[in-house]
Amino acid sequence: MKPETFERLTAASRHGCKFHAEVLPLYNLARESGAKVIVELGTGHGCSTASLCAAAEDIGATVYSADLNPKSGDRLPDEMKERWFNSSSWDPSLPEKMGVTEVDFLFIDTSHKAPETASELALWLPLLKVGGWAVFHDTLICRDGVTVPIEQYIARHPEFDWQWQEQVGSHKFGLGLLRKLAK
Ligand SMILES: C[S@@+](CC[C@H](N)C(=O)[O-])C[C@H]1O[C@@H](n2cnc3c(N)ncnc32)[C@H](O)[C@@H]1O
User: Fold this and answer.
1) Which atom of ligand 1 is nearest to the CA of 110?
2) Is the CB of 109 within 6 Å of ligand 1?
3) Can you give the residue range of the structural domain that contains 39?
4) Does the pTM exceed 0.90?
5) What's the CATH code of the domain at 54?
6) 30-87 pLDDT, tens per residue?
7) How many structural domains comprise the chain?
């Protein structure tokens, strides 16, 4: 990613967003996925959104993002504003509000609470395309709230051949990669 691309995409964040350790791995993963539809849950300061938007520019994808905090939307570049939703990640009406029926690349970085993670998985993983990726932040530091519900979901849904791995050497917080393989 060109640094000026990241600067442009995070200009509205007013330095709330830095080019930190997670930015490049997420950009690379999204770019290599060749996704068409990217959904982010947990916009926050917009750092991860910028990574995803930069990848989307390279591969011709569309990014949608949502956050409970109404201020998160203010931190995004203008081009993202109409694809940003002030909403709970597990609101059953959110995919329809986004106009999304299938997702190629899902990034989740929200409350890291087990019941909420379970609700997010129940809503969004059925929409993940076969071959698609779901990427989770903080899998190493929030095992109980993030990683355990993912492992439980996989165990309850053996109809797909899930591939679950921690991105090796990415950073200390953990970046978990879940791929939905063919039935
Ligand atoms: C760790 S921050 C996200 C950081 C962001 N990915 C970034 O790079 O700046 C977590 C965000 O999740 C949001 N959040 C927490 N629970 C949520 C939920 N159920 N639905 C949507 N957003 C939620 C919070 O408002 C907060 O902005």
Assistant:
1) 12
2) yes
3) 3-181
4) yes
5) 3.40.50.150
6) 999 999 999 999 999 999 999 999 999 999 999 999 999 999 999 999 989 999 999 9
7) 1
